[in-house]
TrEMBL record, chain A:
Compositionally biased intervals (Polar residues): 41-52
Protein name: Extracellular solute-binding protein
Ranges for region Disordered: 31-52
Keywords, comma-separated and alphabetical: Signal
């Protein structure tokens, strides 16, 4: 019983991810074409700005104001959120003292619901999936509606939204309500997942990097027969990077997603192309070309397969993995060389840019909503404090930290690979000749921690701000991967949609059933326990379980999104 | 007449209270704890009948009646998860429940203290290994090229992924549970064994009873009340299987035998963290569990001396 | 350090995992807090459980049947997380150490076992003591408890281990990081190192080198967390040795 009781308290990070997905799907923002931009606010080297709307001068009256901010936090490097330099610098610059309430990480979702249930709300609340969405929270009197307040107190945020109609579109609800500050990226972030293969093995066998499905079949056969690999290709259906579905995507289908085919919503796993995908996988499985243990492969043992050289290719790799894999892989085999490849195409001569439609399109709004409590007594201070993140100085502070400490401006323009497109207009002249460079505190940390640990102290936490997703130090393979994986020009991925309360309910009821059945059948199809000829029955069963209702709901959501 | 009985009752109460005043003091501390920490918050079960929204609070969330229960009953997976939950528990009671008793009895027969302590320490160690690691080891051992398959292949058995075989899931699940819990579970029986009067064994030896007879006629009866109470309590969780180990071990190929109530509710929760739904299913579970406990208690009371109350 | 799956063929030995975990500034605080919670919590739990177990095991006490039923019910029905949280807030023990100790003071399962064990002690002992003018406290502490050392040891072990392993109440009732128990801090470290996956999903990039040490950290964390309790066990073990029940005392 004890265990059952626990169910009331969903503990997993899985739920967390789900709530993040929810918060991604729930969007809100502003159509106001604010004239009040701060594009011209000059940026001085010490990081302070001169006068102008949305500048530090506005904070004069808030000296000593106290705000409370609920923010999940954990770090293996710093002891408390107050040790973060960005946090300290914000207090220095604005004079606003922020009292951070930090629930332990891993428990964010429960902690969030308990905070909401107790009614004792801090001024600033990063949404963790309010039940029914942000709009509902506004209706329930929990979050503040920000539409009228943003032009008044958040000119920088208003200016960013005004830069591109799509920014505003992705930052508001279907009815136009805006209830949060979002993490915004003013350019398209490169795709971060796709296939990869051992180039050194290919060279040894005298083979080219595969492009078409037939190439892949031949290459995998060679890896199995000539190289005697235990696992020619890892196939992680339950992968942590589940969004990317390289091989299902080749056939215009998807393992689990709804797709937006030129404005029409379809469910990937019942598309005709999915049958071709299953046929191929079944054939590969029979021939021993894909992981025999794909059904039980967990992330740790998948890593071991890659680094020990037992796996020749990875159906869906993720670019953050290249660095650690290479380090471990080279320790046992100096020739280890895993390279990203483009998404496979159907036949020779197909251009992946034109024929592949399931990549990993990233949207301008990355969610991570920060709302303001409807009970807050410091609404203006809270808005201004959040708005600072969207100014040019705020952009530098949150992405690179404090000048002279964690970064310096050095000669040489900001390259596209370093995210030139993500810089705010106020910095557009400067980045033609100079670029920010991280100091040794981050790249060769004196405490001996790596870049990714050190950022806990020197960069912003992951939350809503104007973000440059390329303001990190990355392995060379990563840039290669970004190029190869970002090829699809027209992507079928769904934009960030909003759901109504009713839609959420139907979703939970219908999709749990469908997902359970679909997963079972897909695994059985691949392993040959169900003949592929039964695919039509499988589609019929999913329809019987109510997929049409869900397709209709998703179509409605897409249309509401388009009409925002 | 009524007044008289009333008075008499009062008198009994008074004498009893006087005689047992310290007992009542002790009991009232415990009862107070139960009232405060268990009964006061119990009003929360009403969210099983509501569409709970933390923003509105428990009392202001709208009533939905039996909607959550209905949604569970009409689910095509309903029968399967109920059956699987029940069967896994039955197997666990059949194999997992006696295991620590047998271990304790065996240890009781061992004379060498060093051997006894070593065995005790070794068997109780796995209890402390986190479930994530235990499942990692299981997945590793049962994989196509894992330890078990490598051993079996020497006997000509074809290598397959054992965890992808739905017929083996319950065996693996219950078996690994025994491995992890046998030592820890035996502790309580070892403690109970110490309560048995040594003179009984001496007397039995004089009477010429062998060790087997002593085991049957002295040792087992000596711990039978502990066994019965633990069995009654175990029956009270017959519809419960924790979801952590299940979701770490199962995969879509074994849903047929492995998907239980808690794992299903967990998967549903992934789409929509819903306190009301999980409370409703939890409540249903508890009701069934409670009836099983009452039944087991009644049977035990009827056929043995032992009962919870 | 290379792992071949899990623990099978480690190709080397390294302290890196341990140093990564032990360098965490919160570990020592966590250790201190956990020891505090285990010692104080187990003591309070034992007092409550002994009182309850003794009082409910005496024959002829009125209402004891009903009290037992009420207690058993709580094993099955609870109001869930939210009312519990509000209660702790209302009691004014939120964000104090009491929030960890009091709400989990009694385990009904343990209480029932304790009662069962106390019931097996012959009543004659108690009666003769009462003839000599002993009250129930004296009977409990002077006669019952000394005769029940094995079960006391078991209960201490059960409560202690439960407290040692618990983290959930701390996660929801504590805000001040200087009161966090070890398990909660270790859990955060594990999640932090797994966050790779989560962040990667939203972020595109993350934990490159951290990722490599994830498994290491996992195992190091487990060893660090369970070693002390493994060391403590042999001390309790001696109470489970057959015949400790001081036969002579009975005579």
């Amino acid at each position: 019983m004890k265990k059952m009781k626990k169910l009331g308290l969903p503990l997993s990070s899985g739920i967390l991810v789900a709530s993040m997905v929810l918060s991604l799907a729930a969007c809100g923002s502003n159509t106001n074409n604010s004239e009040n931009t701060s594009d011209n606010a000059p940026n001085t080297p010490d990081g302070t700005a001169t006068t102008g709307a949305g500048s530090l001068a506005d904070f004069a009256k808030f000296q000593g104001t106290k705000l409370t901010y609920w923010h999940p936090f954990s770090s293996t490097y710093i002891k408390s959120i107050n040790d973060n330099m960005v946090v300290q610098e914000m207090e220095k610059r604005t004079g606003i003292k922020v009292d951070y309430i930090t629930p332990p990480s891993g428990q964010e979702s429960d902690a969030f619901n308990l905070m909401i249930a107790s009614g004792e709300l801090p001024d600033i609340i990063p949404d963790q999936g309010y039940k029914g969405g942000g709009l509902k929270a506004v209706q329930d009197g929990v979050y503040l509606k920000l539409n009228d307040l943003i032009p008044k107190y958040a000119p920088n945020y208003a200016a960013v939204l005004a830069q591109n109609p799509d920014f505003a579109k992705q930052a508001k609800e279907d009815d136009g309500t805006i209830w949060s500050f979002k993490m915004l990226q003013t350019d398209e972030e490169p795709s971060w997942a796709g296939p990869a293969i051992r180039k050194d093995y290919l060279d040894e066998l005298g083979l080219q990097v595969p492009k078409t499905i037939d190439d892949w079949t031949n290459v995998l056969k060679a890896l199995k027969d000539k190289k005697k690999l235990e696992t020619p290709m890892l196939l992680q259906l339950k992968s942590k990077f589940g969004a990317a579905e390289a091989f299902a995507g080749t056939f215009g289908s998807s393992y689990s997603q709804f797709l937006n085919k030129n404005g029409t919503v379809v469910y990937g796993p019942i598309e005709p192309g999915f049958k071709d995908f299953l046929t191929l996988m079944n054939q590969w499985y029979k021939e021993g070309l894909i992981d025999k243990d794909f059904a039980t492969r967990d992330d740790t043992s998948a890593d071991a397969q890659v680094t020990s050289g037992k796996a020749g290719a990875v159906a869906v790799a993720f670019y953050g993995s290249f660095g650690p894999w290479a380090t471990s892989g080279k320790a046992t085999n100096p020739d280890y060389n895993l390279v990203p490849t483009t998404y496979p195409v159907l036949k020779e001569g197909d251009d992946p840019a034109k024929t592949i439609h399931v990549g990993n399109k990233n949207w301008y709004s990355k969610g991570s909503d920060i709302a303001i409590s409807a009970k807050s007594k410091n609404v203006e201070a809270a808005l201004r404090w959040l708005d600072y993140r969207y100014s040019a100085e705020g952009f530098m502070l949150f992405n690179y930290g404090v000048e002279g400490v964690s970064y310096n401006w050095v000669d040489g323009p900001v390259e596209q690979k370093d995210g030139s497109g993500f810089f705010p207009p106020a910095l557009s002249e400067r980045i033609k000749t100079q670029h920010p460079e991280f100091t040794d505190l981050l790249t060769k940390n004196p405490d001996g921690v790596d870049f990714w640990t050190a950022i806990d102290k020197y960069k912003s936490l992951y939350e809503a701000y104007l973000r440059n997703p390329l303001s990190y130090v990355m392995a060379p393979e990563v840039y290669d991967a970004m190029d190869k994986w970002s090829t699809p020009e027209k992507d079928y991925n769904m934009p960030p949609l909003s759901s109504t309360d009713e839609e959420v309910k139907v979703n939970a009821e219908v999709m749990t059933q469908i997902n359970t059945y679909r997963e079972e059948m897909v695994y059985k199809f691949i392993m040959g326990e169900e003949p592929i000829d039964d695919f039509d029955q499988y589609v019929a069963q999913i329809k019987k379980m109510g997929i049409d209702k869900m397709i209709k709901i998703t179509q409605d959501q897409l249309e509401r999104y388009n009409n925002r | 007449m009524i007044v008289k009985t009333h008075n008499r009752k009062m008198n009994i109460l008074k004498t009893d209270f006087k005689k047992n005043k310290y007992i009542y003091l002790m009991v009232s501390i415990v009862v107070a704890w139960y009232i405060i920490f268990a009964y006061i918050p119990m009003y929360g079960v009403i969210i099983a009948f509501k569409d709970f929204n933390p923003g509105r609070g428990i009392l202001n969330s709208p009533w939905v009646g039996l909607d959550h229960f209905k949604s569970f009953f009409i689910d095509p997976n309903f029968r399967r998860v109920i059956t699987n939950t029940f069967l896994i528990n039955i197997y666990d009671i059949l194999w997992g429940f006696p295991a620590p008793i047998i271990l304790a009895l065996l240890m009781n027969e061992v004379r060498s203290k060093i051997f006894k302590k070593t065995v005790q320490n070794l068997t109780y160690l796995p209890f402390f290994i986190s479930i994530v690691v235990v499942c990692g080891i299981i997945i590793d051992f049962t994989s196509t090229n894992g330890l078990i398959n490598q051993l079996l292949s020497h006997f000509g058995v074809e290598k397959t992924n054992l965890l992808a075989n739905k017929d083996l899931f319950r065996t693996i699940f219950v078996g690994s549970g025994i491995w992890q819990g046998i030592g820890w579970g035996s502790i309580i029986y070892l403690a109970a064994l110490t309560n048995i009067d040594q003179q009984q064994y001496e007397a039995a030896t004089i009477d010429g009873a062998g060790r087997w007879k002593q085991l049957l006629h002295i040792t087992l009866p000596g711990i039978s009340s502990t066994i019965m109470i633990l069995l009654i309590l175990r029956m009270g969780s017959i519809m419960s299987v924790g979801f952590e180990k299940i979701i770490l071990l199962y995969n879509p190929l074994t849903y047929d035998t492995a998907d239980v109530i808690s794992s299903y509710v967990y998967r549903r929760g992934l789409l929509n963290a819903d306190y009301s739904y999980s409370t409703a299913i939890g409540l249903l579970n508890s009701l069934i569990n409670f009836f099983f406990l009452i039944g087991a208690n009644w049977l035990s009371k009827k056929y043995s001396e032992n009962s919870l109350w | 350090m290379q792992h071949e799956g899990i623990l099978l063929k480690p190709l080397g030995f390294t302290w890196k995992g341990y140093s990564l975990v032990l360098n965490n500034p919160n570990i020592s605080i966590g250790y201190y807090n956990t020891v505090y919670y285990v010692v104080v919590g187990t003591l309070i739990s034992m007092i409550f459980t002994c009182f309850g177990g003794y009082a409910l095991s005496r024959k002829g006490v009125l209402f004891s049947k009903y009290i037992l039923i009420l207690i058993t019910i709580t094993m099955f029905f609870s109001g869930g997380l939210i009312p519990f949280y509000l209660l702790v807030k209302d009691l004014g023990i939120y964000d104090t150490r009491w929030a960890i100790i009091l709400p989990s003071a009694i385990s009904t399962w343990n209480l029932i076992i304790m009662r069962t064990s106390f019931m097996q002690i012959p009543e004659s002992l108690e009666e003769s003591a009462k003839m000599d003018g002993a009250n129930d406290f004296t009977v409990l502490f002077r006669i019952i408890l000394p005769l029940s050392m094995p079960i006391i040891a078991v209960m201490v072990l059960f409560y202690g281990v439960a407290m040692w392993n618990s983290w959930f109440n701390a996660a929801i009732f504590l805000r001040d990081r200087s009161t966090f128990p070890l398990q909660l801090i270790l859990r955060e470290i594990l999640i932090q190192n797994d966050k790779g996956s989560m962040l990667q999903v939203q972020n595109g990039i993350s934990g490159q080198a951290e990722d490599m040490y994830r498994a290491l950290i996992q195992y190091s964390t487990i060893v660090i967390a369970t070693l002390p309790i493994l060391v403590a066990y042999p001390f309790l073990q001696k109470y489970f040795v057959k015949g400790i029940m001081v036969g002579s005392l009975k005579g």
